[in-house]
Design goal:
Nucleotidyltransferase, domain 5; alpha/beta; globular; 14 strands; 37% helix; binds adenosine-5'-diphosphate; 2 domains; 398 residues; six-stranded mixed beta sheet; 14 helices
Length: 398
């Protein structure tokens, strides 16, 4: 069975065609600048060089059509015909409280996804456009929606409720939802496989540290708390997002600088985080480079980032009443030994002890704690596409 995984952004689209018999990737690619001049498709058949296809792509339907063409291309395609695409799995950012699990997509489901748009006005519309385009192009192929928020629907009320008037939760759905759920779930399940430990009775903190970053406290295999909230803006310091700040800063800025809601929103989402503090870049590689050369603001950005992650680890250990396993994943978590070291330094009192040599590792599944460390610390590369494909396989077969 072959599953096509699609992740539609506002002007981009990532895809993977996965053979679910052995979970191998047959082809993958990325479309950029959809609806903008200079649209480009970068397609890669497994074991072959990347091909770059430059063609105008005015909308997602045109882009998906080109992806499908690339997949069956006699030269760089991965299958002979589209009949070999057995199901499509779509990443959907926000499922609100409607979706606690992945779901087989029907018209009713699409309508329910549309109702979640006001909670994720940036992310859900392109996800839905991608689904509708695929439905037109592959009308008989079953499609599944996999939600970033779904894994966190197990959070207890004291984790997800905001201390605002309760009516706002009832009327507008203002509560914490959490994101990156597919990634947090994947790495926690992978840990169970690797260690042979049952998720039941195990307390795990997963650190998804990429451009967007979040931590999740996982108890008995279920999300117990997570750092992102109603939107992905809450929580850790991120590439360009501020994470937790005093909410009074919003009105203060609006009054002092005559800023509009859009301007404040843009400032907190696009100009803050490690970019805002360092003034160097949102990319941790650039900031680490600048800090090494003595740039004080770059160092401060890294210090603030690690300090925030450290505080969350402490608070989640307290929230769960202990910690057995700590996992690092995503771009920075998988690749940056200095960041992992800085985060774990000083957490020995919790039983976290990093082995300096084992920690010199990139993008591999490996334990980086010492043999004596009470808490086992791992690097686990995330694989959200595979997780989406697995759910799609199960639901499409029903
Ligand atoms: P997203 O999917 O949220 O865009 P990723 O998980 O791909 O993010 O992570 C991207 C980030 O990972 C980059 O901004 C970069 O800062 C960081 N990163 C990747 N490789 C390294 C590395 N070798 N050292 C430090 N940071 C890295």
């Amino acid at each position: 069975m072959n599953v096509l995984v699609i992740n539609c952004g506002s002007s981009s689209l990532k895809y993977q065609l996965i053979n679910m018999n052995d979970e191998s990737v047959l082809a993958k690619g990325l479309v950029e600048r959809i609806g903008i001049e200079g649209s480009v498709l970068k397609h890669e058949k497994a074991g072959h060089d990347k091909v770059v296809i430059q063609e105008p792509m005015g909308n997602h339907k045109v882009a998906i059509n080109l992806v499908l063409k690339a997949l069956v291309d006699p030269e760089h395609g991965a299958v002979k015909s589209l009949d070999e695409v057995d199901a499509v799995g779509h990443r959907v950012v926000h499922g609100g409280e409607k979706f606690a699990n992945s779901v087989l997509i029907s018209d009713e489901v699409i309508n329910a996804m549309k109702e979640c748009i006001e909670l994720a006005s940036l992310h859900n519309p392109p996800n839905i456009i991608g689904i509708e385009a695929c439905k037109e192009l592959l009308p008989t192929v079953p499609m599944v929606g996999v939600f970033d928020t779904a894994f966190h629907q197990t959070m207890p009320a004291e984790s997800f409720i905001y201390p605002l008037p309760y009516e706002l939760y009832e009327e507008l759905g203002i509560r914490r939802y959490g994101f990156h759920g597919t990634s947090h779930k994947y790495v926690s399940e992978r840990i169970a496989d690797l260690t042979g430990k049952s998720l039941e009775g195990t307390k795990i903190i997963t650190c998804h540290l990429g451009n967007g970053a979040s931590l999740t406290a996982i108890k008995d295999g279920k999300s117990f708390d997570t750092s992102m909230g109603m939107t992905p803006l809450e929580g850790l310091v991120m590439g360009t997002r501020c994470g937790d700040i005093d909410p009074a800063i919003v009105t203060f800025l609006m009054n002092k600088k005559n800023m509009t809601t859009e301007q404040v929103d843009n400032l907190m989402n696009k100009k803050s985080g490690v970019l805002g503090i360092s003034g160097v870049s949102s990319d941790f590689r650039d900031i680490e480079g600048a800090a090494d050369k003595g740039n004080k603001r770059a160092k401060l950005a890294l210090d603030k980032f690690s300090y925030t992650v450290k505080k969350y680890i402490g608070s989640y250990a307290a929230a769960m009443g202990g910690l057995d396993i700590l996992v690092f994943t995503a771009g920075l978590g998988e690749n940056s030994s200095p960041a992992r070291f800085q985060i774990c330094e000083g957490l020995e009192f919790l039983g976290i002890e990093i082995d300096k040599d084992r920690n010199i590792v990139r993008g591999k599944e490996v334990e980086i704690s010492t043999n004596n460390s009470k808490v086992k610390v791992f690097v686990i590369p995330t694989n959200e596409e595979l997780m989406i494909a697995r759910d799609t396989k199960i639901l499409a077969a029903k």
